[in-house]
Design brief:
Blueprint (H helix, E strand, L loop, with lengths): L4 H19 L6 H6 L1 H29 L7 H10 L5 H19 L6 H10 L1 H18 L1
Length: 142
């Protein structure tokens, strides 16, 4: 079975939309995050949805292509990397994002605003790289 390009593109659009909205917060630091709870919640939600859309894409491709059974959300990206759908050097960054998503979704041990600020400053481009890799995959899967 081949992955459904329409499903994947819909999720890619969601990633791109959320990443664009997150860009305006890319310079926010911990004091600014801590000082505006409403905007903080917006940022956390945008990050969570973008990461979940990435995980949905990975799970869809893995299932459609019968690439294996992931042991957890982070393993989705290991499988994509091992099948050259995303670059190996990119795998650990998205595994970290998948783990971060668990903290976002469940507020494990509270929210680490330093980690949020780090992601805003350093990891938004990862969404672009993921989207580019998936677009290449879609081009090959035709």
């Amino acid at each position: 079975m081949v992955a459904d390009a329409d499903i994947i593109r819909e999720r890619l659009d969601k990633i791109r939309q959320h990443r664009l909205l997150l860009e305006k917060f890319s310079a926010w630091d911990v004091p600014k995050l801590a000082g505006d709870y409403e905007e903080q919640m917006k940022i956390l939600h945008l990050l969570q949805i973008a990461i979940e859309a990435s995980m949905d894409i990975a799970a869809h491709i893995i299932s459609a292509e019968q690439l294996g059974v992931p042991v957890d959300h982070a393993d989705l990206f290991r499988i994509l990397g091992s099948h050259k759908i995303i670059e190996e050097n990119f795998v650990s960054a998205f595994q970290d994002m998948a783990r971060f998503r668990n903290r976002l979704a469940h507020f494990y041990m509270g929210m680490d605003l330093e980690r949020v600020a780090f992601v805003l400053h350093n990891n938004l481009r990862d969404f672009d790289l993921f989207a580019e890799a998936i677009e290449k995959y879609l081009g090959r899967a035709r």
